[in-house]
Amino acid sequence: MRKLFLLSVVFFIVLLVYFNLPLKAFAVENPLAVPNNKFGIHILFPDEIIDAAKLVNTNGGLYGYVVIPIQAGDKDLKKWQLFMDRAKALQLIPIVRLATEGDYFNTKVWRKPRPEDLVDFANFLNSLRWPTKNRYIIVFNEPNRADEWGGKLSPGEYAQILSYSVTVFKSKNQNFFIISAGMDNAAANNGDISMNAYDYFRQMNSAVPGIFNQIDGFSSHSYPNPAFSQPPSKQDNQSIASFKFERAFIKSMSNKDLPAFITETGWSKERLSENQIAEYYKTAYTTVWNDDSLVCITPFILRADTMPFINFSFLDKENPNILFRAVESLSKTKGTPVIETEVLGENIKNPQAIVVKNFTDNSSKKKTLGAKAFNIIFSWLLKLD
Predict the structure, then answer these.
(1) Interior angle at CA 135, CA 130 and CA 136, nearest 5
(2) Could you tell me which of 326, 327, 297, 323 has the C-alpha nearest to residue 312?
(3) Residue 138 near residue 181, CB atoms below 8 Å
(4) Which of 40, 116, 196, 218 would staple 296 via disulfide (CB 3.0–4.6 Å)?
């Protein structure tokens, strides 16, 4: 019996080696259970990550956050692996927001995602080597606006897509940390055009009961509305404190205390001076955003060249502006997230020079090693009494 048991164990181990079968991880890590640098920034293009690090990892900070969208048609393995390698080298935590593309028949709206989009996203993003154990995924963007959801509001459809995302991504790797979409916190109930975020949350939960028990965190777009211009002292459900109201409402429909991710926020230069906005950022980070439930605050946006986004930019073309300098100067925390053990290695001194190595097929080598290991262990077991 002893030999039979040991042979069974060895046979299972050799199968893993021989056929390169994956071992599932146990679960996502709680990002608030360790020292956490909640400073971050929203970027649009992977090569902006170097400037992002100069903003969020300064003045004592390490492992700040960077949010970036990935469109359904943008699955370039070398491009995105380079982004992940740079995040590792720069000690940044990436948060990837899923996106589709402009609807072919109506370019004023974003195409509504399909289930097969989630399968493709999960397969592609699981093929990348991530820098941290948690693989943060935001499932699309502001679906309480019709133009973000194929031109027609549907909280039930979004809830189903969100639930399917949890199933698909976690079937690939349990380390995927699924975050619900940030809502437009200024949206009102306006027919087929927009819906109040709280009514949207309620209808999501009605369509898929317990939907907020399935996810790992929620995204908040805590803009200073109305008009992206209100002071930090204004703290209601359309302000930079809207994450608190959203969190309490979501908690009332679930049995989980979900962490909050502010993945968009910021003041517009259309109505305020840069000096005033800089002071608002300093106040916000040290008061309302100094909240234990917040994992990160990633203002929108690091760099923009067109209206209206340019009004929120932290860079004027390539140069840091007053907003950049204000946030850069704030004291930050040396974050210590759980690192993905598969990518541990020597720090890369020059992230700009990182190149992606060619991927080689080592399957024959692994099979040879597996066969040798099996022969050695099997021979040893036969000698046991």
Answers:
(1) 130
(2) 323
(3) yes
(4) 40
- pLDDT digit string (tens) for 214-269? 999 999 999 999 999 999 999 999 999 999 999 999 999 999 999 999 999 999 99
Q: How far apart are CA 272 and CA 322, in angstroms?
A: 13
Q: Helix (H) and strand (E) counts for the chain?
A: 11, 10
Which phi and psi (to 5°) does residue 240 adopt? Answer: -70, -5
Q: Which residue has the tokens 């940044």?
A: 92
Tokens of 153: 């509001």
pLDDT of residue 109: 93
Q: How far apart are CA 130 and CA 124, in angstroms?
A: 12
CATH superfamily of 37-345: Glycosidases (3.20.20.80)
Determine phi and psi for 92, rounding to 5 degrees.
-120, 155
Residue in 157, 159, 155, 134 with CA at minimum distance from that of residue 144: 155
Copy the structure tokens of residue 380. Answer: 């040893």
- What's the rounded Cα separation, in Å, for the pair 129 and 133? 10
Distance, CA of 214 to CA of 7 (rounded, Å): 39
Q: How many CA atoms lie within 13 A of 74 on its CB side?
A: 16
**This prediction's pTM:** 0.84
d(CA 98, CA 70): 5
The CA dihedral of 161, 166, 168, 174, to the nearest 10 degrees, is 170
How far apart CA 25 and CA 42 sit, in angstroms, is: 29
Distance from C-alpha of 178 to C-alpha of 188, rounded to nearest angstrom: 26
Nearest to 42 by CA among 355, 327, 257: 327
